[in-house]
Amino acid sequence: TSEQIEHLHRRFKQLSRDQLTIRKENFDSIPDLEFNPIRGKIVHAFFDKRNLRQESDGLADEINFEDFLTIMSYFRPIEMNMDEEQLDRFRKEKLKFLFHMYDSDHDGKITLQEYRNVVEELLSGNPHLEKESARSIADGAMLEAASICVGQMGPDQVYEGITFEDFLKMWQGIDIETKMHVRFLNMETIAHCY
Questions:
Q1: What total number of domains does the chain contain?
Q2: Chain segment 54-108, per-residue pLDDT in tens
Q3: Which of 63, 79, 189, 191 is the most buried (most CB within 10 A)?
Q4: Are the C-beta atoms of residues 102 and 118 closer than 8 Å to each other?
Q5: Transmembrane residues, as ranges (predicted)?
Q6: Dihedral of CA 42/40/46/135: which sign?
């Protein structure tokens, strides 16, 4: 709605300090992101050209308000008047954004190493969990992904990684629409920083 766009524009101006673009360092002032273990991946996703719906690959150095709206559109809630086709497209857009966060080398697959990196980052705040345990968790999850996506594999088969189609299968039945949201856009939060 125009009211939501106005709210996002005020938030954009706060983050950019009244500049026409936002750079990665502008996200340093967001308290809700400060202690998030995958903070780097979240910020990275805002500048990922795939998420900005650009033809090229890689990262943008800065984003303007239109780019910011594009990224924020991935986090909007479902609308009551959406038909099944719109809901499916909406869900796929959200999952594509999430997939890009994991696929850090932009090759269209989430490899075991990429998955390990995310799991290690997520669990890094737990002082009781060693790196090897985090790796075991990632390895187990990757095996489960392989069994869901490929089925029974032979002993000489190697699972190359999770494709987007595999990713869709893995998220089937999970309500991504309510799980994927952004709390750091709260206007009051940033006011406490100054």
A1: 1
A2: 877 889 999 999 999 999 988 887 778 888 898 888 889 989 998 999 898 899 9
A3: 63
A4: yes
A5: none
A6: negative
Measured from the Cβ of residue 155, the count of other Cβ atoms closer than 10 Å reads 4
CATH number at residue 154: 1.10.238.10
* Contact indicator for 8, 69 with CB cutoff of 8 Å: yes
- For the beta carbon of residue 120, count every other beta carbon within 10 angstroms: 17
- State whether residue 184 is helix, strand or coil: coil
Any domain includes 194: no
DSSP letter, residue 48: B
Query: 171 is in which domain, residue-wise?
Result: 2-178
Pairwise CA distance, residues 146 & 149, whole Å? 5
Quick: pLDDT tens for 130-163. 878 888 888 888 888 778 777 766 667 667 888 9
**Amino acid (1-letter code) at residue 16:** S
β-strand pairing of 62-64 with 21-23: antiparallel
User: Residue 192: inside a domain, yes or no?
Assistant: no
Q: What is the pTM for the complete model shown?
A: 0.78
What is the spatial distance between Cα 159 and Cα 173, in angstroms, rounded to a whole number?
23
Q: How far apart are CA 72 and CA 8, in angstroms?
A: 9
- Reading the block at residue 150, the tokens are 């490929």
